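SAMPLE LOG
Freezer: B-3
Tube label: C17
Construct: single chain, 172 aa
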Amino acid sequence: MTFSEIYELADVHRLPVDPIKIADALGVKVVSYKSAAEFFELDIRELYAQFPLGFSFETEGGACVALNENSCGERRRRFTAAHELGHCVLGHLDGNEYSAEEERAAERFAAELLAPLVVLHEHGVRSFEEIAKLCGISRQAAELRLEELILRERSGFVPDEDEQRIKKLFFI
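STRUCTURE (predicted):
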């Protein structure tokens, strides 16, 4: 599934992107640690120790994302939700642990979902502060997106087919 298809399915047309709304549109259930602890019949402290921010898992009813509602700030929780959603969308739920490659793929998914480069380019952003504010992401995530944006713009920033559809969704 492409990002434009995801945004269209979730009826997302502006920043900041709500990863919970997207999860809902994709049929991915987002649950609290309390609910996840009950599901796995674990002490909630075990989940906090093993997964400080969040995790994703498969049930008979489909994919789920558990978010630690007590962790960090809202921006970090949003990125964690998008990251775990990435594991679900990218088909990583078949094992107990994710490979380093799967973790990087989920990070890239989250970054693109929450801060699509074509949208940042069209907005003409020039600082990580603008990106952080516009996208509701952390300074660290915004700095990385700014670096990627600058690299794309140096090479002429020619939107691919999916980015052209994203541009239409966000700017028409």
